[in-house]
């Protein structure tokens, strides 16, 4: 008799236990005893992944942009999406929230973890006075409890030249006709946002 082969298929996640039994037959019909080979297949977690749309954010100063993050795990394990680093310019929010995110905040959990974030550049308009534009980023990670993968979202904040405004006093001054001269003092302010 020649060598025997057996193929046994097990799922690609979770702890699995399998065995294969062999018997040998000769051409006269005689049968050998049964031999069993046992397998202990131990689960090994694969790397989780995530994607974000758009892959980078580009907004004008004092405006905002959205980012959608979706996590996935080939082993169908529950995920956490966590903010690791917040932008140095502007603020990052969960869509619909007024509370700025900080490093270490979990923004989504579950097997189908997804987060909708908003980057608001309006928090730091003073950076444009000297630079004309600014770059920033935020970093998030996706974890399945065993393995973690980090991702960076680059942010470009574009300068926009808003028109200047003028501020005049709200008070009206009345000068009677009988006075040939009268001194009136008021302040007019020009403001460049």
Task: Compile the SSE list and pairings.
Elements: E1 16-22, E2 35-41, E3 49-53, E4 57-60, E5 64-72, E6 79-85, E7 91-94, E8 106-110, E9 114-120, H1 128-131, E10 133-143, E11 148-158, E12 165-167, E13 189-191
Parallel strand pairs: 4-11
Antiparallel strand pairs: 1-2, 3-5, 5-9, 6-8, 6-10, 7-9, 10-11, 12-13
Features:
five-stranded mixed β-sheet, 193 residues, four-stranded antiparallel β-sheet, 2% helix, mainly beta, 43% strand
Describe, in plain words, how this protein is organized in 3D.
The chain has about 190 residues and is mostly beta strands. It is about 0% helix and about 45% strand. The chain has a five-stranded mixed beta sheet with strand order 4-11-10-6-8, with no helix packed on it. Strands 3-5-9-7 form a four-stranded antiparallel beta sheet, with no helix packed on it.
Quick structural overview:
The protein is mainly beta. Helices cover 2% and strands 43% of the residues. Strand 10 and strand 11 (148-158) form a beta hairpin.
């Amino acid at each position: 008799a020649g060598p025997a082969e057996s193929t046994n298929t097990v799922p690609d996640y979770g702890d699995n236990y399998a065995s294969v039994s062999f018997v040998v037959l000769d051409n006269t019909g005689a049968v050998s005893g049964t031999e069993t080979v046992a397998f202990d297949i131990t689960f090994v977690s694969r790397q989780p992944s995530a994607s974000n749309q758009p892959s980078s954010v580009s907004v004008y100063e004092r405006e905002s942009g959205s980012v959608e993050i979706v996590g996935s795990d080939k082993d169908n394990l529950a995920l956490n999406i966590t903010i690791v680093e917040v932008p140095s310019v502007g603020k990052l929010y969960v869509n619909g929230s007024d509370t700025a995110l900080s490093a270490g905040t979990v923004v989504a959990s579950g097997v189908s973890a997804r987060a909708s974030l908003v980057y608001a550049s309006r928090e730091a308009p003073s950076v444009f006075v000297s630079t004309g534009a600014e770059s920033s980023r935020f970093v998030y990670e996706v974890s399945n409890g065993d393995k973690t993968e980090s991702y960076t979202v680059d942010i470009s904040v574009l300068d926009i030249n808003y028109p200047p405004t003028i501020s005049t006093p709200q008070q009206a001054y009345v000068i009677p006709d009988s006075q040939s001269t009268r001194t009136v003092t008021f302040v007019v302010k020009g403001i460049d946002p």
